[in-house]
Amino acid sequence: MAFGPGGFGLASGSTSWHLALLLIGGGYLSRANLPGADQQHGHAVGLSQKLAQGATASSGVSSAPISTPACEWASGPTRPRSRPSAPASGMPITLDPDEASMKRTKPPEPPQAVYFLGSRFDTGSIEEAVCNIVAETGGCFKYVVTPNVHHMVRLLEDPTTMRPLYERAWRVFCDSRVLSRLAWFSGLRLPVITGSDLTARLIARAEEQRLTIALIGPTAAACAALGSRYPGLNIVFHTPPMGFIKSPHELQKCVDFAVKTQTPLIFLATGMPQQEILAYHIADHPQARGVGLCIGASIDFLTGKQRRAPVWVQKANLEWLYRLLSDPRRLASRYLIECPRIFYLICFKLGKS
Question: What is the predicted pLDDT for the residue at 317?
Fold first, then answer.
């Protein structure tokens, strides 16, 4: 690795990281600007078992190709729309597990996986991701995470806390176009499936069948706003207090709520890493069912409390800038101090390898 007045780069013969990082930061590159992007693939190895055996940080791996499963909810009579009432705490009074039963139509095949910066990322399209999630909602609890640059910086700087949460996740999808471009410069194809898009599609599917979903984190007002936008959706929710993750009692209340609801989909919107820690604890419970999704601010985007960047801004690699300008006081530290450390961490890891 070479360091100079212009920044940092890799040794001769490698891709020019200095130029790449400047282009990424400026949002210049688009998918069409990347020649041969669709031909970039990693070497074949196993899935999460290989990660535990020490898969390298920057080598791509793949398993059996994705086959799109039949994307159907379980058949059966649908209930008339009704939204169960709940006390002020948001805890539901009663639930009929049958109304949220969504069993798989056939076992889905695992998607391909890519390893980048020592972490597994599942690939495929968002349609395939939705179908795979739908097919698993009737089984034991499993959870989905969608790391972005901020998450990866936290994971690389605090692996003792963060890595077990991501290694245990059933599916790991890349939530960041910047992260995807950085993977491309390492010779890997890393599709983007954002948590916000995945949440919107799953909630729309659930509304079509007038099913019940569970939310942990959003307030009663946010849940009411979501119900207004999706009138065919039944919602039960629990709003834990700030700092709940440090209280064993409050953490257990969240776990008990998730187990009691027995809903096919549980959306965890308590922020990173609280939502991942909570998902990890729910997965420990033998009676927990359904699929949990760690979704951050996705509900705020759906209800209009926060505005998501226009599509052209997202494709220009500048969604981070749009969010920064929309709430600079809260997000300045994240986007101007924490996230840029990803460039140093990538060069450090590549230098070691």
Answer: 85
Q: What is the pTM of this model?
A: 0.71
Share in percent of the chain as helix, strand, coil (round to 5):
45, 10, 45
DSSP three-state, residue 50: helix
Sign of CA dihedral 133, 137, 140, 142: positive
Confidence of residue 40 (pLDDT cuts 50, 70, 90): very low
Query: Within 13 Å of residue 164, how many CA atoms lie on the same side as its CB?
Result: 9
pLDDT of residue 22: 38
Q: Distance between CA 115 and CA 55 in Å, rounded?
A: 8
117, 122, 116: which is closest to 142 by C-alpha? 122
- Provide the 3-class DSSP secondary structure of residue 79: coil
Backbone φ and ψ of 115, nearest 5°: -105, 125
pLDDT at site 111: 76
Count other Cβ atoms within 10 Å, centred on residue 300: 19
Distance CA 41, CA 59 (A): 10
Using alpha carbons only, give the angle 263, 128, 203 rounded to the nearest 5 degrees: 35
**Interatomic CA distance for residues 21 and 238, integer angstroms:** 42
The answer to which of 1-10, 133-142, 238-247, 260-269 has the lowest mean pLDDT is: 1-10
Secondary structure (3-state) at 53: coil
Secondary structure in 3-state letters for 132-171: HHHHHCCCECEEEECCCHHHHHHHHHCHHHHHHHHHCCCE
DSSP per position, 222-269: HHHHHHHHSTT-EEEEE-PPTTGGG-HHHHHHHHHHHHHH--SEEEE-
Residue 314's Cβ-side half-sphere holds a number of Cα atoms within 13 Å equal to 12
What is the SS3 assignment for 195? helix
> What residues are paired with 144 via a beta bridge?
171, 293
Taking only the tens place, the pLDDT of each residue in 184-201 is 998 999 999 999 999 999
Cα–Cα separations (whole angstroms), residue 286 to 97, 99, 275, 302: 16, 21, 19, 32
Domain positions in the chain? 2-352
